[in-house]
Write a structure and sequence with these properties.
By secondary structure, the protein is α+β, with helices and mostly antiparallel strands. The protein folds into two domains: 114 residues, Inosine-uridine Nucleoside N-ribohydrolase, Chain A; 33 residues, no CATH class. The chain has seven helices and six strands; from the N terminus they run ααβαβααβαβββα. The protein has a four-stranded mixed beta sheet. Strands 2-3 form a two-stranded antiparallel ribbon. The longest helix has 10 residues. The protein is globular and about 45 Å long.
């Protein structure tokens, strides 16, 4: 899932990610769930997968991407780039080589009202219930993403 900040702290974004910050208690429940592997792609990784407005207008030529391009045009009235947060998380379901992952333990801050939703990440040297993305192969992501829209 796309949630949290685990590696590099982003000065322009802060140490918390919106999904975890918006409802830290629900996030804590999800991260405490007893699943074999809990995979996360954090904001520190998704922010590396961006495209300029000009590139989006050129690359989103496929018919299936026209509605997305229409939505993006509204976004481009305020910003000159888009970031592929959730698409990156989704593509790793089909190609887990797009990101490098590390196992360990993630805990959600609940005690501090000022830091609720902050993700405490402890590397587990290959063990632990959580698997977080640490790097992304941006070219591989875009290749995989746009291949889904080719005829």
């Amino acid at each position: 899932m796309m949630c949290g900040v685990f590696g590099n702290r982003l000065s322009h974004e802060g140490p918390r990610e919106w999904n975890a910050q918006l409802d830290p208690h629900a996030t804590a429940i999800v991260y405490a769930a007893g699943v074999a592997v809990h995979r996360s792609i954090g904001l520190d990784v998704t922010c590396q997968v961006t495209m300029s407005a000009a590139d989006v207008r050129q690359a989103f030529a496929a018919d299936l991407l026209q509605p997305v391009l229409d939505f993006a045009q509204v976004w481009f009235q305020r910003a000159d780039r888009i970031t592929f947060h959730d698409p990156l998380a989704a593509t790793t379901i089909f190609d887990d080589g797009i990101c490098s992952f590390e196992r360990g333990q993630a805990e959600v801050e609940l005690a501090s009202p000022r830091l609720q939703g902050f993700m405490h990440w402890m590397s587990g040297s290959g063990s632990g219930p959580h698997e977080v993305a640490l790097t992304v192969d941006t070219a591989r992501f875009f290749e995989h993403f746009f291949a889904a829209f080719q005829h």
